[in-house]
What we know:
The complex is a heterodimer. By secondary structure, chain A is mainly alpha-helical. In chain A, helix 1 packs across helix 8 (192-204) and helix 2 packs parallel to helix 4. Chain A starts with 15 loop residues before the first helix and ends in an 11-residue tail after the last helix. Chain A has 13 helices and no strands. By secondary structure, chain B is an alpha/beta fold. In chain B, 26% of the residues lie in helices and 20% in strands. Chain B contains twelve helices and 17 strands. In chain B, strand 10 (202-207), helix 5 and strand 11 form a beta-alpha-beta unit. The longest helix of chain B is centred in the C-terminal third of the chain and has 18 residues, at 423-440. At the A-B interface, helix 1 of A face strand 15, strand 16, helix 11 and helix 12 of B. The site of one iron/sulfur cluster has 16 residues of chain B, from helix 11 and helix 12.
Amino acid sequence: MFKMSTSPHINSKQTTQTIMRDVIVALSPAIFAALCFFGINALIVLVTSVSSCVFFEYFLSRRLGLKNNTFDLSAIVTGVLLALNLPATMPIWMTILGAFMAIGVAKMAFGGIGKNIFNPALVGRVFLFISFPVQMTTWVKPHVLEFFNLDAATAATPLASLKHLTVAEQFNTDYLSLFLGNIGGSMGETSALALLIGFIWMLKRKIITWHIPVCYVGSFAVCIFISALLTGSARFDVLAHILSGGLLLGAIFMATDYTTSPMTKKGKIIFAVGCGVITYIIRVFGSYPEGVSFAILIMNAFVPLIDRYFIQYIYGTGRK
Amino acid sequence: MKAKTFAIGGIHINKHKLSANTKITELALPDVVYIPVKQHIGAPAKIIVKIGDKVKVGTLLAEADGVFSANVFSSVSGEVAKIEEINNGQGYLETVITIKREGDVFEEGMDLTDNLITDILDDKEELLRIITRAGIVGMGGAGFPTPIKNNIPEGKKVDTLIVNGIECEPYLTTDGRLMIEKAEQIIIGTRILNKILGIQNAVIAIDENKPRAIARLHRIAKRYVGVNVQKCKSIYPQGGEKQLINAITGREVPSGKLPIDTNCAVQNVATVYAIYEAVQKHIPLFRRVVTLSGNISHPCNYLVRIGTPISFVLKESNIPLEKVGKIISGGPMMGRTISSLEAPITKTTSGITVFLEENSYKPETTSCLRCGKCVDACPMGLMPLNIRDAVEHNEFQNLKQLHVQDCILCGSCSYVCPAKIPLLDYCKIGKYELSKLQKKA
Ligand code: SF4
Ligand code: SF4
């Protein structure tokens, strides 16, 4: 007897698992950069974060009676993203707590993969940021390729220095360090180069489209540029703003999370521009130097609304 | 020439055109054929023979029952053995006329030579009558009686005839082969339709993955008036009627309306060739080209008599049936699996796709990621994941707003979904539930 089934009888090779695998591959340059700059400290945070995310995913999906999706690798992605959003000196127990907030509260409590409203890794990060502001903003100096260097001399992040520049001062970090990542910051956000390599990989593998990252960074850059024109202050150095802080990590890897970003191209553009503008407002007018996490989380909340109003044009209904 | 394409959605798939360079060969004649009386959309044809009657190739077996129907001819010579209901391979019973073959004797008057006849009768009404009499229906799959498509109703007009040579289904190569081997015949068939429609503007649309067909038709078309060739991008479902109209003319068939409402008529290449044979060579529709492909060692293109059991086609090609997991009538995107090997080749069977056991399983479904890939893929601009939600939660009243009735069942959404959710199945259920709801209201 032959098999009977409905069409189509072929499917694309892309599955949830292959997508997550590609995201992990895309994150690997950033992981590599983190290990280069922050050595064993980075490794500890990374391993803690990933293993606790996987554990919570597995344990909670059983406890909550949800479909066990642990093997789709999405928990690993969340774990890596959370780690890359933390400083390399994060105490182990705090990282575990962050992983619990990410997987347990932001993801599983909403029903697991595809059901969450907020980006899990960002929920973890923001929770830690609010609860432990000191640890979360203690940025160690990078030590290039000195793996076991435990010296925890702190460094100011370029963003913080940018924020406090007065009109007369000059911004003093060179762009090359910003680009390569030889600066203070959370583990994964420092190297723009590593993040861009990941971006290109994801585009090539058709994991994401260019819309969110480009519109996010673009709209943010436009806002900074206009401010620079209006004030003439060195605070509004467009390139420095783009290359420093969590902007690229957020725009490429966090704002593009499938579940928590809009469905259609139009929706994605609106979402990304919203993220860009809010990031600008927080960075420039807020009390924090960094605004990426909050901007994305705020826009996450608007996704259901955006999805409702920015729907696809339906063939044959007459373009307006 | 710049390749044209449709505006919304679409997907890139591996086309697996394994038999694209294999010449059309005539399949041996089976000992029995099963000829269904309904191989088209509309009313079954009325049987006019009885058991024991002697018939020849081309003898009328059943007569069109009204306009929305089509004549059915015998494809072999012999004796009417049975008239009964059999499983049509899709699990439905269907009336078929069984003919035991003896020899191969043709009715008088058919011109079976290869001589090209270029002069076309200058009588619209008569041309339409010949096509009606020859039992021609849309051979691309739908089986819409061809005369209706070309008989323009009062108040409508057609300014463009589109001949569909896209063949966007993977594996199938019948249209592609016909365009290479019968290029001039297809162009003459196109001119016949031009004449019937009273226009001088036909476009033969061909997928860019068929450069040989494009080159040939392009060269020959230059010698004729009113026939043009247009290259189209190799994107699925370029060959969908609505997508093709959009690609060629930029127009859109309004939701719930017919192609004629865009002043277009679309005909498949195989149908146009059948029209050539009917009008110029007096051959009624009793055979067609069928691709046999899939996971098999010798994919090929056969000229097959209608009514030939699929089992016979497979046996003639030495397909090891014990390793076969799935047999599909048509291509893998929109074709249907067959349960009974005795199911016959009909006017609308463009191919048989055979999959080995290991390629016949549906992948496991996981949770929806809300990735939007189905939305990007849909050539109609629908939101398949929302249609699925509405169906799963029994919110059938929402289906109208989701325009589920506009779904063309192309399967692009199911194909791309990384969670392997059978979205097309939900669309089918959605269409059914919505029409039930609307009937009640
Ligand atoms: S393609 Fe599949 S997983 Fe992605 S949104 Fe559509 S239904 Fe969900
Ligand atoms: S099957 Fe229907 S819903 Fe799915 S892509 Fe095709 S037209 Fe869109």
